[in-house]
């Protein structure tokens, strides 16, 4: 990442800074497809620090995440906020592109000139978020949106990755999601800043709200460390095992809200809670801590990506791989020793 941008990218950057939505779309395609110069472009864009409020929506399939996001977006638009929306869809096994299901469900927002919607494919990413989604969120932030909303694929335990991308994480559940124990097993208790039980007009909603609040109370009181396990499950062990993140900072207890996104019931309370959480983030210093954590993860992601790119584009490494395969065939080596040989050659 040195030297000036190529003329085409410099022109794109100028139009990006001028606030042209077409330029934003092309910049996202540049980054998503990892075209030549995309990291130089990001380097220039990220000279401006983060400003937008980032809100993530996650939860199991069918929880109504898209509907709830649409209601939140509509509410924000009544306050003249400019919004960027990223919907991460499963990758089509045939075309390799996003299935665009979320964009279909957000069709009411698509005609609003104050909302920019982008659907992205997971491209096989196990974390629900595409690897480049974090960079796309940075682009939307730098573009000048007041808020950036991101919705992940409902893939269960691997949804923890969203914590690296959002300031406020909203976990959306429905009565059919099961009890609070299932939420703990999925690691959702660890990542949520706000719990929303959507489709609250269905049977079992009140019970789920009660179970979630009880689970949160037990965790806050640290009683869960020694509490008898439900159905023989060690909840503390599950929480430690399934969560790759430390618990959220002290001072904020995730509330449990009830909504019916289709009718708008409970959305005002959700907006007030989002606002309250933002205030707490800023006043407590937690917002800057989370941003610092994102920068650390970003550096690690870029190093990992560049090491893979460097390794598998090297003729020397590919030759070492072929030779290693021959040695493994003759029982003179194993995949582990070959891998160490490649790393030794690569890092020498």
UniProtKB/TrEMBL annotation:
GO molecular function, one term: GTP binding
Alphabetized Gene3D superfamilies for the sequence: P-loop containing nucleotide triphosphate hydrolases
Record carries keyword Cell division: no
UniProt keyword annotations, A-Z: Chaperone, GTP-binding, Hydrolase, Nucleotide-binding
Pfam families to which the protein is assigned, alphabetical: MeaB
NCBIfam families reported in the protein's UniProt record: lao
Family of the protein in this entry: Belongs to the SIMIBI class G3E GTPase family. ArgK/MeaB subfamily.
Protein's name according to its UniProt entry: AAA+ ATPase domain-containing protein
Lineage: unclassified sequences, metagenomes, ecological metagenomes
